[in-house]
Amino acid sequence: MRGSNLDRVRRGNLATVLGLVHRGGALSRAEITRTTGLSRSTVAALIAELTDLGFVLESGPGATAKVGRPSPLVHPDPGCVAITVNPELDAVTVGVVSLGGKVRTRVRNEVGHPVTAAETVEIVVGDLADLAPELASSRVAGIGVAVPGLVREGDGVVRWAPHLGWREEPIAAALHRATGHAAFAANDASLGALAEHIFGAGVGVRDLVYLNGGASGIGGGVITGGAPLGGVGGYAGEFGRTRPGVRDPADRAVADGTLEDEVGRARLLALLGLDSADQVELSAALAASADRAVRAELARQARVLSVAVSNAVNVLDPEMVVLGGFLADVLRADPEGFTGLVRDQSVGPASEGVRIVPAALGADLLMIGAGQLALHRLLADPAAIRDRSGVNGPPAPDRGA
């Protein structure tokens, strides 16, 4: 029994140290020792084991003003990666994200129609074949899929993705069968909230609301008390399907419209004269445009969006609201004006300290979130790799198929 308890402690300490390095980038042994409260010899042994497992690397000591021998730096091993997938109305984006939340590769596959789940799998398989030389020297922890829809947390079945037309699609199981890699799926905006909380604007923030605007509408995610709010089935955060009260009837674009009916990327693209654009291209075009119609539409969308954000502030009392995708562009058009609109419509004390900011991770956000999803088993128990054949382990049961 004693040996079993010691093994559990060791495995827990391995996860703690790997988590610190994953979130913090390059940390010295001394920083890890101070943060964990473990002895120097224990930390040295844990780092040696994580190095042997292929999850961290050590480099020469960093510069320090302190007296004594400098401490070596511990980095996430960039050779340990996750494959990420984000199916949208206009494109399927496939990425390679390494430990530490670094996007190594992004491939945008433009499509002229809403892709089926089967077509998404075909695209991923094709991209992985193209990426085979790059991945040959890497260890793949799994595949994470960021889906614009309701995804059942337990088995990665997409219950409903209205813009894609998916219902009861076992996308995680299908990708596992096609690639041999463990696969996981979750709502895209929930993963965006997680990414911003761990690596972006929300680092150190325990209560935040994230809203994401993409080609497939608007989604949301909530971090409360430092942990994701999932709900019973993992469906929490569907802000896009709510119906905000539009104060000025002239601002309403769709009778009885939902938030994503009223606040939409397609209208901005049309005014810019663009058929399609990724988020980087859209942000650049909006920032450069002096067209009055474009500025007026951004202002209209800001007024409607402010209602939804103020409702979230009133209900959830967050420290921060993060806007991603094209919603960040709506905010950037007039950040002070938007914040003022939210505060005017919020309960006074709840809105006093809330910060409303654009997502810090930009176009990488959903890739990083999906990567975190794929890496979660490894981060929770790094030592489990010794019990499995490779990072992925044996084939998972075909749940939901």
Distance between the termini: 40 Å
Strand order across the largest sheet: 6-5-4-7-11
Q: What's the β-strand tally?
A: 16
Specify the CATH architecture of the largest domain: 2-Layer Sandwich
| Topology-level CATH name of the largest domain | Nucleotidyltransferase, domain 5
Q: How much β-strand is present in the residues? A: 15-25%
Domain count, please report it: 3
Question: Secondary-structure blueprint of this entry?
Answer:
Elements: H1 2-24, E1 27-28, H2 29-36, H3 40-53, E2 56-61, E3 72-76, E4 80-87, E5 91-98, E6 102-110, H4 117-130, H5 132-135, E7 139-147, E8 150-151, E9 158-161, E10 166-169, H6 171-179, E11 183-187, H7 188-199, E12 208-214, E13 217-224, E14 227-228, H8 259-262, H9 265-272, H10 279-288, H11 292-316, E15 320-325, H12 326-333, H13 335-344, H14 348-351, E16 355-358, H15 365-380
Parallel strand pairs: 4-7, 7-11, 12-15, 15-16
Antiparallel strand pairs: 1-3, 2-3, 4-5, 5-6, 8-9, 9-10, 12-13, 13-14
Helix pairs in contact: 1-3, 4-6, 7-15, 9-11, 11-12, 11-13
InterPro entries: ATPase_NBD, HTH_MarR-typ, ROK, WH-like_DNA-bd_sf, WH_DNA-bd_sf
Keywords: Kinase, Transferase
Organism: Saccharopolyspora gloriosae
